[in-house]
Amino acid sequence: PVSSTLGIGMDILRAMAVLIEHPLLAFVPALVFAALYAISKNCLVLTAGLLWLAYLSYEYGMKLRVLCSGECNIRIDLLLLYPMLILVSLAGLVMFAATVLRKSHA
């Protein structure tokens, strides 16, 4: 059902909210995608890693209140950023798998 799909999506977004308090955790997926890029040499995989690094910088700037003026508690920006990170990450993983499979069959 649609309601359970929405529930799963909201659970994922809530889980990602830990990055607000601990932005350095975004370094983990960035490193994973860097390693996957070293194996696959796929540009989308590299892009996913770079987006995670960009998000890390952005979120750390928000935590330090460098990128927001006073009221940083209402984070409408995350309604765009989290789905974008999820989609690019999934696409990067799919492209990694496709690249590795293609190379193994060659």
3D architecture notes:
By secondary structure, the chain is mainly alpha-helical. It has five helices and no strands. Helix 3 (27-40) packs antiparallel against helix 4, helix 3 (27-40) runs parallel beside helix 5 and helix 4 (43-63) packs antiparallel against helix 5. The longest helix is centred in the C-terminal third of the chain and has 28 residues, at 78-105. The radius of gyration is 16 Å and the shape is globular. The protein starts with a helix and ends with a helix. The model has no long low-confidence stretch (mean pLDDT 89).
Which terms summarize this structure?
106 residues; globular; 5 helices; mainly alpha
What shape does the CA trace take? globular
- The tally of helices reads 5
- Could you estimate the helical fraction of the residues in percent? over 70%
Oligomer: single chain
- End-to-end distance, in Å? 41 Å
Computed Rg = 16 Å
Which structural class is indicated by helix and strand composition? Answer: mainly alpha
Strand elements, count: 0
Return the average pLDDT rounded to an integer: 89
**How much of the sequence is in beta strands?**
under 5%
Low-confidence stretches: none
Q: Name the helix and strand elements from N-terminus to C-terminus, one letter apiece.
A: HHHHH
Major sheet size, sense and barrel closure: none
